[in-house]
What we know:
- The protein has 2 domains: 2-223, Rossmann fold, CATH 3.40.50; 236-360, CATH 2.40.50.140.
- The longest helix has 18 residues, at 166-183.
- The protein is α+β, with helices and mostly antiparallel strands.
- Helices cover 22% and strands 36% of the residues.
- The chain contains 8 helices and 20 strands.
- The structure holds adenosine-5'-triphosphate.
- It comes from Salibaculum griseiflavum.
Amino acid sequence: MTLIQLSGVNKHFGDYHALRDIDLEIQQGEFFSLLGPSGCGKTTLLRTIAGFEDVGSGSIRIDGRDMKGVGPNLRPTNMVFQSYAIFPHLSVAENVGFGLRRADMTRDEKTRAVGEALEMVGLGGYGGRAANALSGGQRQRVALARALILKPKVLLLDEPLSALDKKIREQMQVELIKLQREVGITFILVTHDQEEALVMSDRIAVMFDGGIGQMDDPETLYRRPRSKRVAQFIGMMNFLDGEVAATGTEIEVTVQGLGRCSVAAEQAPGAVAPGPVSIGIRPETLSLLFEGETTTRKEVAAVVDEVVYYGDMTYYDVRVDGIEKPLTLSMKNLIGRPVLDVGTQTRVAWDERSLVLLGH
Ligand SMILES: Nc1ncnc2c1ncn2[C@@H]1O[C@H](COP(=O)(O)OP(=O)(O)OP(=O)(O)O)[C@@H](O)[C@H]1O
């Protein structure tokens, strides 16, 4: 069921066009992310859904109701901010219960609701603690519990994990996904961290310059980016020049350094026409062939140009005749498999099926 529907939403700040013709639908129970570089309009879009910003044109409907003129406190949404504003002089329970202060509930009911909300975020038993005696991760949980206790239909999260260090952030990501599945509330997350978006979301809208560049599930976004811009923003991608000779169910294309290829139409998610084209190939779809190794895939001669060792993986940049920039590829480090030195002559296995045609 569609819970949130934006049609033709535009927003200006003076002369600045902050949101451009935004159309999107978010389903009940969906974990939806807005992802994009700094300044692309993610927070502005979230704030228009929350009702903190008016829209210039277009409409926002939540749960079938037009939100025009409906203030933030009357919308079925609740927002959790990056700078989790908790009150340091109050206890954890008082912080979480803050939103219920005007609710028509008995003291006992409120205490029970606070206890349940704290359990939900893994802080059961912490109610009596002073809020200023909590770690960053625990504070973030308090902020979440405070939002969840109001049982909103939609929880809006503006970079809620960005202040946490890497380990805790990854742990909180997993916990947030679990929590979202348990409570069944629709989550809309703003993030500039593509890994975070890929890990957590059912669907992602990638935003550039106030508009939506592509909206898809994480796998489609990663495997089938519709433009060079999206491909560049999500994960690591090698770009090669090519020339499309013919289109149809199979596309005939000549790829710089790799020669003539035939790819399926689904490998060109954006529009392609005969003529020059940009082609993407992910590092993990290329592999080095070690001495004596054979392959049923295609192969091309290469020279190791750069080696970056990551423990479980090694990233190599390799030079291939006919391609100006080195290709980046990643190899899992297995026992008995050597890490090659710069200057080693080697071969790279590749596959026509992993090429993505990215338009002109
Ligand atoms: N109240 C405002 N008045 C004027 N300009 C604004 C206002 N709020 C946002 N902007 C501008 O609108 C653009 C989008 O801002 P927004 O905060 O939505 O970006 P963002 O994608 O969330 O970026 P970040 O990841 O850096 O938070 C920016 O160029 C910003 O300077």
